[in-house]
TrEMBL record:
GO terms for molecular function: endonuclease activity; hydrolase activity; ribonuclease P RNA binding. One of its GO terms (cellular component) is ribonuclease P complex. Transmembrane segments: none annotated. Its main location: nucleus. Coiled coil: none annotated. The gene is POP4. It comes from the Eukaryota. It is found in: Nucleus. It comes from Choanephora cucurbitarum. Gene3D superfamilies: Ribonuclease P/MRP, subunit p29. This is Ribonuclease P protein subunit. SUPFAM superfamilies: Rof/RNase P subunit-like.
């Protein structure tokens, strides 16, 4: 072979297709029982393709099957289905104040971390904060029966604070018609929460900008 000549040149026509066949026949002849016909065994062998172009199952079929399986897994419940299944309902046996006291302690720790960042903008941070675990007291309401009710926030919706009282009662307090008091143990201070200002889902409230107001009427 000349210097620089490629080792990957095609074999001469008289050799192509013969070398491999000869080797396979010799191998089969050596290992198949003498009573067997080597040529017959070769003809009955099924080829195995390693080239993607010869795949028995088309790529399109595979992709379609994967997409179908993925769509089944990714289907989410609608809001109506969640209500019917009572996904967000707190079971009756969980209406116990003591069960949520650890959550309240975690919330006070959360407030301590916010305070450690400086008190200058703490009020704005408090308005945007997650209130699950906070102890709220109703100090003003258009419904007199709510005034004085106190408990741990266990759920917040667009228009309600759901709290568990020390009497193990679940109360649903409308935001739009109530004002609340909240105590921060770290500094021993009470803050007034104006319910109408909180009529938003927690995630939306976290991104909302609030204008300072001296008071908000019901």
């Amino acid at each position: 072979m000349d210097k620089g000549e490629s080792v990957y040149q095609s074999l001469p026509g008289n050799l192509q297709g013969k070398l491999g066949t000869k080797a396979v026949k010799e191998f089969v002849s050596d290992f198949i029982k003498p009573t067997s016909d080597a040529d017959k065994a070769l003809k009955e062998m099924k080829p195995i393709y390693i080239d993607r172009a010869h795949t028995f199952v088309k790529e399109e079929d595979k992709k379609a099957e994967k997409k179908k399986q993925r769509s089944k897994k990714e289907r989410k419940l609608t809001a109506r289905e969640k209500r019917q299944l009572k996904v967000y309902d707190i079971p009756k046996e969980a209406h116990q104040y003591r069960l949520f006291e650890p959550l309240s302690q975690l919330w006070q720790g959360y407030m301590s971390r916010l305070l450690s960042q400086g008190q200058a903008n703490f009020e704005q941070k408090l308005i945007r904060a997650d209130f699950h675990g906070a102890i709220l007291t109703v100090i003003q309401s258009s419904n007199p029966t709510y005034i004085g009710v106190q408990g741990i926030v266990v759920q917040e919706t667009l228009s309600l604070f759901k709290i568990i009282t020390k009497q193990d009662k679940l109360k649903q307090i409308p935001k739009n018609s109530s004002h609340f008091s909240i105590r921060i143990n770290e500094i021993g201070k009470d803050y007034t929460i104006y319910g109408p200002q909180f009529v938003a889902r927690p995630a939306e409230r976290a991104a909302k900008k609030f204008k300072p107001k001296p008071s908000i009427g019901l």
